[in-house]
Amino acid sequence: MHTSLPEFRMPNDEQVHLAAEGFRLLADPTRIKILWALLQGESSVACLAELVGAAPTAVSQHLAKLRLAGLVKGRREGTYVHYSAANTHVRALLAEALFHADHADRDLPDHPGGEPAAHTYISDPAASAS
User: Fold this and answer.
1) Helix (H, G, I), strand (E, B) or coil at 43
2) Long-range contacts of 91-95, Cβ-Cβ distance < 8 Å, separation of 24 or more
3) Three-class SS of residue 75?
4) What pLDDT, in 10s, does the model give residues 16-34?
5) What is the pTM of this model?
6) Angle (CA) 125 84 104, round 5°
């Protein structure tokens, strides 16, 4: 079947390994919250800790792992490091994962024609409960 698709190419082993490692590192709710916060703009460990409700030491450890995976980057300013999402691919990856979760959570249908529609927000479960 796949031989009849001239444009079909399997990703190479290194691409598959790196993608799996990225997904493995994102399989943690705190890391997803950290990354989502970083997609909104640069932030420090202390600010991220407050936003995600975790200890600064835990956030720092999460950031180290995300940084090793190439999902976040740091910018040193004196004794502080300001973190941000690594690139637009990270934004797209996390946004699609959260949009998928939103569709599954609210039992929303797939997009017509299979094409993703422009999502402008991630729904707030507390807001939809009222």
Assistant:
1) strand
2) 91/39, 93/22, 93/26, 94/26, 94/32, 94/35, 94/36, 94/39, 95/39, 95/119, 95/122
3) strand
4) 998 899 899 899 999 999 9
5) 0.76
6) 25
